[in-house]
Amino acid sequence: MPALNIEYTEEELAAVRAAAAADGKSVKAYVHDLTVREQQRRLFVQTAAAFWNEHREEFDAAFPDEVPRTDRPSAAA
């Protein structure tokens, strides 16, 4: 099975070990699960953003009072 060697500072590794222990997992299982969850989160956000962009006009039509006004000056101005 493919594997990775990851380098940490002493402080980083101590924090990872503490987080793994708090979850009741080995460091290996904790880091594996964390990276897989992050990839799944990124895919979810990407898919949700694409869905929003594809259906934005429908949302605006269904909820006209919630459509942001474009005639207001931006906060950066």
Instruction: Please provide the ordered H/E string of secondary-structure elements.
Output: HH
Proportion of strand residues: under 5%
Class from secondary-structure proportions: mainly alpha
Low-confidence stretches: none
The number of helical elements comes to: 2
Count of individual beta strands: 0
Calculate Rg over CA atoms.
21 Å
Mean pLDDT across residues: 92
Distance between the termini: 54 Å
* Rough outline: elongated
Biggest sheet layout: none
How much helical structure, as a percent, in the residues? 55-70%
Your description of this structure?
It is a single chain. The model has no long low-confidence stretch (mean pLDDT 92). The protein is elongated. It contains two helices and no strands. The chain has helices at residues 10-22, 27-62.
What keyword list fits this structure?
single chain; 77 residues; mainly alpha; 2 helices; 64% helix
Spell out the blueprint of helices and strands.
Layout: H1 10-22, H2 27-62
Helix pairs in contact: 1-2
Quick structural overview:
The chain is built from two helices and no strands. It is mainly alpha-helical and 77 residues long.
